[in-house]
Write a structure and sequence with these properties.
It comes from Streptomyces flavalbus. Helix content is 5%, strand content 61%. It is mainly β. The longest helix has 11 residues.
Length: 207
């Protein structure tokens, strides 16, 4: 069960945004990720609880940020309920998308589990609902993902397989690279892995 800490920063000016203390693990029904976020000054900032089924579909999502809350799941596309800080107003949403995304590294892992790409420069298109900080506002985004290469690196715990993905935002054409090992993000725009207590988990279909 990987357990560690990511630092999150603005990918443009590198302003520190939060620290994300996480743990995750594959299980008989899929994969689960839970985390607590703190501000750079150490105050509580929010939380993430994401569970995927064996096909990579989100069977449960619960996000908290700035007292806003979102609960969602894959249902007729994806469906979610967003609650305001007072708890008196809840808005339900639904759209024919494949999954969710957001600032947490969990969503990058979730997208790779959903797409199951093999090394190729051929890109696969995916539609996601992004919950944007600081109020978890929903926004539908279209991306394309390609697994450019898969490399094994020697470590003290044996070989570590690292996947390099190219992600393209289809509305702007902006591209960026994501490096993932098992169920841990090693590097991505706005994300740095600061500490990892145990090696990443390997999925059954990952060499």
């Amino acid at each position: 069960m990987p357990r560690g800490r990511y630092s999150l920063h603005d990918p443009h000016d590198h302003t520190p945004l939060a620290e994300e203390h996480f743990q995750c693990a594959p299980g008989p029904s899929g994969w689960r990720y839970v985390s607590q976020l703190t501000t750079p000054t150490g105050d509580h900032h929010g939380s993430v609880d994401l569970a995927l089924d064996e096909l990579g579909r989100p069977i449960r999502l619960e996000l908290h940020a700035a007292s806003w809350q979102v609960r969602g799941a894959a249902l007729d596309g994806v469906t979610w309920v967003r609650t305001d800080p007072t708890g008196t107003h809840a808005t339900e949403g639904n759209t024919p998308a494949h999954a969710f995304t957001g600032t947490s590294p969990a969503f990058l892992i979730a997208t790779t589990r959903l797409l199951r790409l093999t090394p190729s420069h051929t890109a696969t298109r995916v539609r996601l609902v992004a919950f944007t900080d600081p109020v978890l506002a929903p926004r539908t985004v279209d991306q394309s993902w390609a697994l450019l290469k898969r490399e094994a690196h020697a470590t003290d715990n044996g070989p570590l397989t690292v996947d390099e993905y190219q992600v393209t935002a289809l509305d702007t054409g902006e591209q960026h690279t994501v490096h993932i090992a098992g169920d841990v993000v090693l590097a991505a725009p706005g994300i740095e892995l600061e500490h990892l207590e145990t090696p990443p988990s390997t999925f059954p279909d990952t060499p």
